Amino acid sequence: MQTYKAPLRDMRFLLHEVFDGTALASRPGEESLAPDLIDSILEEAGRFVEEVLAPLNASGDEEGCHYENGVVRTPKGFKAAYDLFREGGWTALACDPEYGGQGLPECVNKLVEEMICSANLSFSLYPGLSRGAYQALRDHGTEELKRRFLPKLASGVWSGTMCLTEPHCGTDLGMLRTRAVPQEDGSYLLSGNKIFISAGEHDLTENIIHLVLARLPDAPAGSRGISLFLVPKFLPDEQDRPDARNGVLCTAIEHKMGIKASATCQLTFENAKGWLVGAPHRGLAAMFTMMNSERLSVGIQGLAIGEAAYQSAVAYARERIQGRSLSGTKNPDQPADPIIVHPDVRRMLLTMRAYAEGCRALGLWVAQALDTIERSAEPAAREKAEDFTALMTPIVKALFTDLGFEAANLAVQVYGGHGYIRDHGVEQYVRDARIAMIYEGTNGIQALDLVGRKLGAHYGRLLRGFFHPVAAFIAAHKEDAAIGKMVHGLEKAFGALQLATAHIAEAGMRDPEEAGAAASEYLRLFGLVALGFMWARMAKTAAAKLANGADEPAFYHAKLTTARFTMERLLPQAGALYLAIKSGKHAMMALEEAAF
Prior knowledge:
The chain is built from 19 helices and 11 strands. Strands 3, 4, 5, 6, 7, 10 and 11 form a 7-stranded mixed β-sheet that branches. It has a two-stranded antiparallel ribbon with strand order 1-2. 57% of the residues lie in helices and 11% in strands. The protein is globular, with a radius of gyration of 24 Å. The protein is α+β, with helices and mostly antiparallel strands. Helix 1 (8-18) packs antiparallel against helix 2, helix 10 (379-415) packs across helix 12 and helix 13 (443-454) crosses helix 16.
């Protein structure tokens, strides 16, 4: 059986102990964001996902979505769950109060988002896409569009999508063909076909707002000629109620490997009325607001699946008896010991735990930077936070989803044959997790973004937001009696990252293919060092709590033990990754195409 309990204790540990959540209430106008209030929000979110969303995860996967004559129905229970979700205010959690939102910080929103994704990834995509559409429209829409549409998105009575991909082009958006013809009233008529549109049609909301990339008649060729348009499923009347049906039709839904309860749609636009968002021919700049938001959210999906898979694997490993412990019988009253006593099962469980808790800490660090961008009054602080989130976005998206998929596979391995069949539900985690490595830009594209755009941006300025705090932490704590040995492990891995960075910078200038050949290993190396840094920080906090006689010693001992496992068993991969990077492109580029 799938097992999920919201990891509230770990979330509180990060918010209030590692990152000092009291800082949230220190900003002007946010004095109400005390730890007790944040904790109560997280507790209520945990209760909701455990009681309402998690029970629909397996049944939604089994039933899937239904398509008939342009209409999509979600699985049994989804509409009622969404109504409860919307009525509870969860769609408005981080939206601006000006548009009916609650105005909570992104670091809190991301923790709630993780719980939703762990409990039911398919369900999460419906409000998740709306959140991205809200942000793009808020940042780039006219005041009239924001007034009419943002309150509907915040309340959740309307939902949103992003429409990029076309049958002949995916990542290369410069090839898209959808056209937008200007009208005398200032609107546009759009015609074209889009595919792989998550939540493109469903029965959860009374209207759907599509953000569509298209070309104006005078658009230059390539990606510089793309504009962004808002196209509703139903055109709103003068009271902003859904009225006439627009020229948008769902022609099919995809039959997918996973996330089967999420409607992935093919959409046809036939003279569909829409409005320009942002400047003409500058649609990608506007859409990237949504895409970058979604990339961080997809990273959270990877973390969430990894957490759910870990919890299910632990529950099974405690119950399943098989063989005897190598150090002597642990369960003499039974014919065998529980498999959790075996070293290789421990290896898998601790790997999953290290990934999930490390990614949660790293995700929260990035989310705090998002809050600084939104809320800080200091331009220098906002610029620093923008640099940091730009650098870390491809790492969060790719690393978290890679590790989430690995964790889901490890869960199946822990279950053995019982994991491979549908009865226990862990094979669903593998199928659901796989898409996160693909959509919102494949992980290979994220790696190219990291080495091709982020490393050299502003003469390496973005790197300083990560390299400087890591170097300072190592210098300050490598002689620490409690965690010094762990910090030495971090120092070695960080050294490999520094050498790899210098190598790619030099080799990439000579030959762009060298940087491309190293990109995926470099992202993984960077991500491992980032996780190691998070675990070092968590170990520092846990050691200090134990030294001061903490009330929950078992919790902090577990943190230190998992940190040690991370440093000794996972972080050494950094050396091998550096050697692979340094070997260059020859081994992968020498083979002629015809020989494949």
